[in-house]
Amino acid sequence: MYIYELDFKVRDYECDLQGIVNNSVYQNYLEHTRHEFLLSRNVSFSGLHEQGVDAVVARIEIAFKNSLRSRDEFVCKLNVKKEGVKYVFHQAIYRKPDNKLCITAKVTTVVVVDGKLVSQFGIFDELVAESEQ
């Protein structure tokens, strides 16, 4: 189950010599989706930073299933869970219109407040609770 979806379209410059989206570009899609998800819940990533709160990526695992090509339309989906002090974003990208799974990703983040790791952070705990409903 996913609690958020964001539509995209592959741009020509995101492809490599093989004519497929370069592997590093998928991380941009994933990150943009996480930021837009936060904004959709009235949480500003930059606003948090200005308050001394940073959600930082600790680990990313990506499984590549099917390639995207120039001008392909796709959707990036997201869910979030809590594992100890970590907030884990489970994400997937599906190509439209055939709904082919292109990648799955597990993005592990931690929250640092004024430079110190915290085990709980209200806003993020609320997002986890939303995903468990």
Provide an overview of this structure.
Strand 5 and strand 6 form a beta hairpin. The chain has one domain: Roll (Thiol Ester Dehydrase, Chain A), CATH 3.10.129.10. The protein contains three helices and six strands; from the N terminus they run E-H-H-E-E-E-E-E-H. 24% of the residues lie in helices and 42% in strands. It is α+β, with helices and mostly antiparallel strands and 133 residues long. The termini are close together. Strands 1, 2, 3, 4, 5 and 6 form a six-stranded antiparallel sheet that branches.
Q: Please, how many helices?
A: 3
CATH class: Alpha Beta
CATH names the topology as Thiol Ester Dehydrase, Chain A
Considering DSSP H and I runs of 4 or more, what fraction of the residues is helical?
A: 10-25%
Number of domains: 1
Order of helices and strands: EHHEEEEEH
Poorly predicted tracts of residues? none
Share of residues in strands: 35-45%
CATH superfamily grouping: Hotdog Thioesterase
Radius of gyration computed on alpha carbons: 15 Å
Overall body shape = elongated
SS elements, strand count: 6
**Secondary-structure content class:** alpha+beta
